[in-house]
Specification:
Layout: E1 2-5, E2 11-14, E3 17-18, H1 24-34, E4 41-42, H2 43-51, H3 57-78, E5 82-85, E6 88-91, H4 99-115, H5 119-130, H6 145-171, H7 175-188, H8 193-205, H9 209-227, H10 233-243, H11 283-295, E7 298-302, H12 309-317, E8 323-327, H13 337-344, H14 354-362, E9 367-372, H15 378-391, E10 395-401, E11 410-414, H16 427-438, H17 446-458, H18 463-471, H19 478-485, H20 506-515, H21 519-525, H22 537-543, H23 552-561, E12 566-568, E13 575-577, H24 580-589, H25 593-612, H26 620-628, H27 631-644, H28 646-655, H29 657-662, H30 667-680, H31 686-702, H32 706-719, H33 728-744, H34 749-763, H35 769-785, H36 789-806, H37 809-825, H38 830-850, H39 854-870, H40 874-891, H41 904-915, H42 927-953
Parallel strand pairs: 7-10, 7-11, 8-9, 9-10
Antiparallel strand pairs: 1-2, 2-3, 4-6, 5-6, 12-13
Helix pairs in contact: 1-2, 1-3, 3-42, 4-5, 4-6, 4-11, 5-6, 6-7, 6-8, 7-8, 8-9, 8-10, 11-12, 13-14, 16-17, 16-18, 17-19, 25-27, 25-28, 27-28, 28-30, 28-31, 30-31, 31-32, 31-33, 32-33, 33-34, 33-35, 34-35, 35-36, 35-37, 36-37, 37-38, 37-39, 38-39, 38-42, 39-40, 39-42, 40-42
């Protein structure tokens, strides 16, 4: 178990043992991440909070180094909590695993207990909350924007907790202790009127009415004299009540004995029974619900089918003696709502209007009314809820619904599925708990854990679905259940008798949501199920049913409001997604499944055309990132077209030829799709077949298959017409791929001829900048084979400049990468060449990190292994080599393919060097850890050599 404390000097415990975090910088960095409260913290925010500076390349490198050290300090149990995030990092800890998160939960719970007439419980909870404070929050950090707001919020919450604790002590009759604490509290914060109000009330109840009025006059003088303002309405009202000796001011329960629990009062027992199963993973939501009901009189818990809205509401109500539960799932008419509420309150035979009888029973007493499953009664609720809240000032109403009612004053608490991981409170944790209930003595194996993760992912982390899957564990293993639930709902069992779920299956729960939709929204929803991994609004607009009325934004907003669609608004653009369970249900009931798939495939084709048109310009990186975000949809669209429109599949796969290479993990799949498309339509237009062959040559080259790459490039050249201007760009790309293949094959004179032919073809045309830069790569290789290193350097420097001017970002890095290999292979001056190569590789890796090109980035890191080993860093070289090999195997690429450019001599030297490296006993590194390892080691070596050279010069 991991617990992080920041309410004072930062401290981390792992399984009860304090972790040694290192010096002040790691402590500040961890404190800054903790201030993110589980959200990603950008590199810029970390730079400001930790170093009080702007983000630079040096600071970025320093952050990576410190993160690596912190992960090592946290050990195997804790390192996973420090996660990489887009443009930053996050400390992935549940609120209950941090003292500030636990403090917030306890304050919310204590406030709820005080509101719910449980002052004794409130005192215990608030005292335990305040005991967590050890000093200034995030003591290691200054007043950066990232920290100051969070710190101010926590300090304010502590002030509120101090006041609520004294209010709870007054409510339970512990007046003397409350007055003593409040006398000090008003000195510490003299402008907080709540403290004066409580102090005066405590003095009045102690029989010191004159002293109480004197304190009220004292605070008036303070506020008027120093701030020029009168006391607020609460203090003024309290003074008036004291002057007329309002008897209700003295009504207070007898103080309970300090060391013995008070006997249970039968009239105070909870009326909503708690379910017999353990609630897992909802501590934060329960606290949020208690806090919401503490400040709002109408709260609605919303969320998709099966997410656990009813269970959350029942769990909260079970802790309260004033709660009454009204189940509305089977209520079909508005006229039946009033009698159902009356029955829940014990009014069995109301005369006249049931709501009038309910209001008479409630009066001004404090009550919580839980209205469960209200989505089909949204329009009727206004005529019930608003009059009751107006006539019953002590009433609070909690509703559960797939969507909000839209009533004035409503506070909405959106309930999300459980996170899918192995931590406490996760979907997997829930599944394991329910399996243990039906299989005594069962303990999960590693295989069970993998299967459980697959089950929970397939079921979207929905508690209802997970419990139904666990019911099958009586008869099947988790691996069997995982196989079935990916595609079929019959792999799920039935709810246990006595379950709070109003539905008898997951299908019924989803159907209940979908059937409630108006016809237009339902038709729109059924067009969205082919999207895999989500979609932007433009995609939804493209697949809307013909003749659909209304704006696409309104349609999407309605589906989000009704909890059948989710919206991720944290990024740009907003991304919408159907839960997998809803996707499968919509697919199964779609009467025009073929038409829906055609519409999705048509959008994929249009989207690919729009984005790949940017490949030849400065927006290449943007286009690659945008396409990468839709890979799941692209694969689905191509799969459809391979079966129904193979010529379109060929055009799409060929257009994406640079996307497949930009993502190391996509190279093998891209090669397979290109081959399938080429085989499916041998009579397709020449340009489409040539583009696909060029893409096949590119993929084969990245996978270390130069013979296949050469055959594909030659086939493309054979198809293209040298005299047709429409073929110019494809012809030059085919020449480039032929040169690369021959270089991989170390073809000598054939390569020289190919490179010169490529250059001549470029000279006869006006090609885009990325092809002009690519031409120079082949010429540089010819110069290297001739032994002319100055010409190699000059040629690749020109290539880098052209790539920079035309926005061919990856071309800049590839130029640096090739020059680094040539410098490493040059026999003269090993150390100077290796040092310069190392600097070039650092620059290339930095570019590849900013623009996705996983295959070539691995090649740069592979070269980094050689450079580090040459420069006397064998341990770092060994670990880097192990990591590169691991990621290359996962991605199906060959990072050593550039070795052949530099001839067999370099291959032999590197093989000997690798054989001399020390063994690596640690596990594989994550991608960002691998990059950080190289960056840190290379930066340190460069700095060390620069200092040595400077000393020699002196």
């Amino acid at each position: 178990m991991i617990f992080c404390r920041v309410l004072g000097p930062i401290d981390v415990e792992i399984d009860g043992v304090r972790a040694e975090l290192g010096g002040p910088v790691p402590r500040r960095l961890l404190a800054a991440l903790a201030a993110g409260a589980g959200a990603p913290v950008s590199l810029a925010a970390l730079a400001e909070a930790v170093w009080d500076t702007e983000l630079t390349a040096e600071v970025t490198s320093a952050i990576r180094v410190v993160v690596h050290r912190l992960r090592s300090a946290l050990g195997p149990r804790g390192r996973g909590c420090l996660e990489s995030a887009p443009r930053g990092y996050r400390l992935a800890l549940a609120p209950e695993a941090t003292d500030h998160g636990l403090f917030e939960q306890r304050v919310a719970r204590g406030s709820g207990q005080l509101t719910g007439d449980d002052p004794r419980g409130a005192v215990r909870t608030l005292e335990s909350a305040l005991a967590l404070w050890r000093g200034r929050p995030w003591a290691e950090l200054g007043e950066s924007l990232h920290v100051s707001g969070q710190r101010a919020r926590m300090v304010e919450l502590r002030e509120i907790a101090v006041e609520e604790l004294q209010a709870a002590r007054l409510a339970r009759g512990d007046t003397a202790r409350a007055v003593a604490a409040l006398s000090q509290a008003v000195i510490e914060a003299p402008y907080r009127e709540r403290r004066w109000e409580l102090l005066a009330l405590g003095l009045y109840r102690s029989g010191r009415q004159g002293h109480a009025l004197a304190e009220l006059r004292r605070v008036r003088g303070l506020l008027v004299g120093e701030l020029g303002t009168e006391p607020g309405p609460a203090l003024r009202a309290l003074e008036r009540r004291m002057l007329v000796h309002d008897p209700s001011l003295l009504i207070v329960p007898e103080p309970a004995p300090p060391d013995e629990p008070r006997a249970a009062d039968p009239a105070r027992r909870a009326t909503v029974p708690r379910p017999l199963t353990q609630l897992i993973g909802r501590a934060r939501e329960l606290s949020a619900l208690a806090a919401a009901l503490g400040t709002s009189r109408l709260v609605t818990v919303t969320g998709p089918a099966g997410v656990g809205k009813t269970r959350l509401a029942v769990e909260h109500a079970a802790d309260r003696a004033d709660a009454r539960l009204v189940r509305l799932a089977d209520i079909r008419g508005a006229e039946a709502i009033g009698p159902a509420i009356a029955s829940a309150l014990g009014v069995t035979r109301p005369s006249g209007d049931p709501l009038t009888a309910v209001a008479h029973v409630l009066g001004d007493r404090r009550r919580l009314l839980v209205l469960d499953n209200c989505e089909h009664l949204t329009d009727a609720l206004a005529d019930v809820v608003l009059p009751l809240l107006a006539r019953c000032p002590g009433l609070r109403i909690l509703t559960t619904s797939r969507w909000a009612s839209g009533l004035d004053g409503e506070r909405v608490l959106a309930l999300a599925p459980l996170p899918i991981d192995g931590e406490a409170g996760s979907a997997v944790d829930l599944l394991f708990d329910r399996v243990r209930a039906v299989r005594a003595g069962w303990a999960p194996t590693a295989r069970d854990t993998a299967a459980a993760t697959a089950i929970c992912a397939a079921l979207d982390g929905l508690p209802l679905a997970i419990e139904l899957a666990a019911a099958r564990a009586r008869s099947f293993g988790l691996a069997d259940i995982a196989t079935h639930v990916r595609e079929r709902f019959d792999g799920l069992g039935a709810p246990a008798r006595g379950s709070v779920s109003p539905h008898d299956s997951l299908v019924a729960a989803i159907a209940w949501s979908v059937e409630q939709l108006p016809d237009a929204e339902r038709a729109f929803l059924l067009r969205l199920w082919p999207f895999d991994g989500g979609f932007p609004w433009q995609a939804a607009s493209a697949v809307r049913p013909a003749g659909a009325d209304g704006a696409v934004f309104a349609g999407l907003a309605a589906l989000v409001d009704r909890s059948v669609l989710t919206a991720d608004v944290s990024g740009e653009p907003v991304r919408y997604r159907l839960l997998e369970t809803v996707r499968r249900y919509c697919r199964d009931i779609d009467a025009d499944r073929a038409g829906t798939l055609r519409a999705h495939a048509a959008w994929v084709r249009s989207f690919v055309v729009d984005q790949t048109s940017l490949f030849a310009g400065a927006r290449f990186s943007e286009a690659v990132r945008t396409l990468a975000g839709e890979l799941a949809n692209i694969h689905a669209g191509i799969a459809h077209d391979l079966e129904h429109a193979p010529a379109q599949a060929l055009r799409t796969t060929g257009a994406l030829r640079y996307l497949w290479a930009a993502h190391a993990g996509q190279v093998p799949e891209g090669r397979q799709l290109l081959r399938r498309a080429l085989d499916a339509c041998p009579d397709a237009p020449v340009a489409d077949r040539a583009a696909a062959l060029i893409g096949l040559a590119l993929a084969c080259g990245h996978m270390g298959e130069p013979d296949a790459a050469l055959r594909a490039a030659d086939a493309a050249l054979a198809l293209l017409d040298d005299e047709d201007p429409a073929h110019d760009d494809l012809l030059l790309e085919a020449h480039m791929r032929r040169c690369n293949s021959l270089a991989d094959l170390d073809a000598g004179e054939r390569l020289r001829g190919a490179a010169l032919a490529f250059k001549a073809a470029c000279d006869r045309r006006d090609p885009p900048g990325f092809l002009r830069a690519s031409t120079l790569w082949g010429i540089a290789l010819v110069h290297f084979q001739d032994g002319d290193m100055p010409a190699v350097v000059e040629t690749l420097t020109r290539a880098h400049g052209i790539a920079t001017r035309c926005g061919f970002t990856s071309g800049e890095a590839i130029s640096d990468l090739q020059l680094a290999w040539y410098l490493l292979a040059d026999a003269a001056g090993v150390e100077p060449g290796a040092l310069r190569a190392l600097d070039l590789l650092l620059r290339a890796v930095d570019v590849f990190e900013r623009q996705p090109n996983g295959s070539d980035e691995l090649a740069a890191l592979h070269a980094g292994v050689f450079a580090l080993a040459l420069l006397g860093a064998p341990d770092a070289a060994a670990r880097l080599h192990s990591a590169v090999a691991h990621h290359a195997e996962r991605g199906g690429t060959r990072p050593d393919r550039y070795l052949r450019f530099a001839g067999p001599g370099l291959e032999q030297r590197m093989a000997r060097l690798l054989a001399s490296l020390p063994p690596v006993r640690s596990g594989p590194l994550a991608w960002d850890e691998m990059v950080a390892l190289f960056t840190d080691a290379a930066t340190a070596l460069s700095a060390s050599r620069a200092q040595t050279q400077g000393a020699r010069a002196l």
